[in-house]
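Is magnesium ion placement plausible here? Inputs below.
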Amino acid sequence: MSENPELLPKEDVVLRVDDLQKAFGGLQATDHATFEVERGTITGLIGPNGAGKSTIFNLISGFYEPDGGTVTVGETDVTGMEPYQVAERGLIRTFQTPRKLEGMTVREAMLVGPRNQPGESFLSLFTSPGSVGEAESKNLADAQRILEEFEIDHLATQPATDISGGQMKLVELARAMLAEPEILLLDEPVAGVNPTLAKKLEEQIRRLNEQGTTFLLIEHDMEFVMNLADPVIVLDQGHVLTEGSPEEVRNDERVIEAYLGGGA
Amino acid sequence: MRLLDDPAGYWADLTTAEKGVLAVSLAFAAFLFVALLTGRLGASYFMFLVGLAGMYGLLSFGLNAQWGFTGLINFSVAAFFGVGAYGTALMTADSSPVAGGFSPVAGLATALVVALVLALLIGIPTLRLRADYLAIASLGLAEVVRLVVLNERQWTNGSAGLRGIPGFFDGWPVLGTFPEAMPGLRIEVIPGSPVLLETPFWQSALNVLLVVTFAAVAYLVLRRAHRSPWGRVLRTIRSDEDLARALGKNTYSFKMQSFVLGSLIMALAGVFYAHLNLYVGPGDLDPITTFYVWVAVILGGSGSNRGALFGGIVVVAIREGTRFMGDLPIAVDAAPLRLLLIGLLIVVVMRFRPQGILPPQRELIWPSAVEDERAPQRPESGVRERKDGDSDE
Ligand SMILES: Nc1ncnc2c1ncn2[C@@H]1O[C@H](COP(=O)(O)OP(=O)(O)OP(=O)(O)O)[C@@H](O)[C@H]1O
Ligand SMILES: [Mg+2]
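Reply from A.M.:
I modeled the complex. Tokens:
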């Protein structure tokens, strides 16, 4: 990859995207993209509208099948796996548009988060209801704790469809945490979120990161990204334009040009 | 039981819809009771109606487990019902060209296995795809099953159908000979009343026992499943399958489980029907059954087990009730009137209560976990119940 900056050797890589390609008809949405996410970082992924950021998320998480290239989570090559199999490897993602669960309260919607619940096996419901109940109690307590940490516990018994977009973003992050991810991919976590709430999200992400979760986040809010992320990867027309600290990226001519050029 | 300890409190806790349903049900029961006592409604016909209601309840439970829980669109309810009926009939009927003469328990097992195979056959290719594929494929399946039954005479007797199906309990130790062994069991309900409980009544009582057992088992299984993390994954799939996948749920497997479970329950209804009617024919695979069952589930409230049961009973009440329209001085034929009534009912419900009459439960969390949680402190805030006062199972 001639146009890539030389990738520094990284110690502990959680996610490796290698020469990933994806075309939609004649449009090369992902064009030989290569990057790595080091464990313990909050890595930013920025780029103009249509740069292919969400497409990369879909490729990584198994929602799209790449035309070429590989995705590695931890030690496992997850290319071509089903989304649930990628999630089982500890990679959880959120979506750009909030996903609302009809007919559920917020805490019910939260309880979908934990992975491999004993009560998700139909037979266990009848053969070992005790352990199902124990796990459910624990998950309910965990959900309550996270909702409190996120200061949205007052929403717990509200219908999940009746909360604001910003609150929904918080719930999504909180739910994703219940899945205990190694690495969490957030697609525009503060889009449409008011500054106060965005600040809250920022704090939560930083706190969770300090507790060991690695983040890869897409965001258009430059202040948010530059505050939080290091390193930052810049995507333009499906390929990695540059990668570096927020300082380096901010002052990079090519980045400024890509944004001014509208990505076209 | 709460109802017995504190009836006033129980009543006060009900939502408006629940109160309405309870009141209407009680009034309807009282009406039937009076009709029974005055002899206007024959006791064994009444039992037949109860059996029919149970059968529709089962079919609605089955569809609810597919559509109500998971959002799977199955238009072959009649086919799974028919497969259940033919499955047991082919094993047990005297006139069966295949096996015949086996015990109804073997018939039951066969019916379930055949329904399972059929569910897998249609589920495997379609459940990986988006919802519409199952809908289309199931429409086709219903017709294929009907045509196979009609045309493959060497296996199914074709249009002649299968006669000589034994009652479900025939050959059982006590239940098998229960009605006949007691010709003396002839009860006058009230001295002087024309109601007599004789052999036919006891025979149909046995059928009711069978369907009530089937329905109770299905209900208890579904209720537990619905409140479990398993059911929660299904509800997530219904609302947003991609979200479930992103959170590590193998949605294909969950959809398959839900589809198979529902199909087996439908087949159970078919098994009951075969041993109730003692005859099955290709007419029993008529797609109208699928229509009735969809009406029942949507009317009752998709996703709610109680709603499905209630919807099933309403459909039977309309189906059978319109038979007596002939007695009224109006020049309308019962059959079109029945469809008209049902159509009208569904339009009214969809207009004024699109979620159905008894939509699902307040909050579906494994009960012991909720109790654990309440134990320390935390009174239930129940915002959702307060909101419109009448959402729920
Ligand atoms: N499923 C799809 N089918 C066809 N084209 C697609 C599909 N998904 C994305 N694209 C196209 O690929 C390109 C990249 O889209 P993508 O959603 O990845 O951009 P993005 O960087 O996330 O943009 P934004 O910042 O606006 O969210 C766009 O031109 C888009 O139209
Ligand atoms: Mg995007």
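Short version: The radius of gyration of chain B is 22 Å.
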